[in-house]
Specification:
single chain, Beta Polymerase, domain 2, alpha+beta, five-stranded mixed beta sheet, 7 helices
Length: 192
Amino acid sequence: MRQAIADEAARLIVEHGLSDFHAAKRKAAVRFGVTDKAVLPGNVEIEAAIASHHRLFGADDHQRTLQRLREQAIEAMQWLAGFNPRLVGPVLSGHASDHSGVTLHLFAESPEAVALCLLDLSIRYQPVQRRMRWGQGEPKALPAFLFGVDDADFEVVVFPVDGIREAPASPVDGRPMKRAALAEVEALLTSA
């Protein structure tokens, strides 16, 4: 049952664009009539089920989508090079789907500097906040900007300049989030 719930949660994430593992897990449990939380899979199990789903259903389409999103990430990272951008999330891990956006971490003296840069690039954005946790500490709210370019959705989260030294905890496994600089993303693209 645990695997069935993980597979269904993965399907909901990939095919319907759910981005919250917890919500996908709950919906999958409801579908199977499961009320015992002990049966629910962990986020790592759901991430593995996402990878399996991509391999089984449309592997070629998935690779094209992933390549397109990584190309768009590279372009945005080049525009935002002054903020030492780092790619994070499903586009980096390879678990992105057609519903995934590109998430970048930027490092700036102030969020206003990022906002001005986006305006200079004629990019209309929506300011939001994202809560991030480091280790077992309390979550902290960070400024972020949502915008779209061509057919890609972007979220850039602004950290203090010294925030480049320590990544926040991953919502998947609680370990420090994997981040990739521009050269690393370019290498991923050429190795695919």
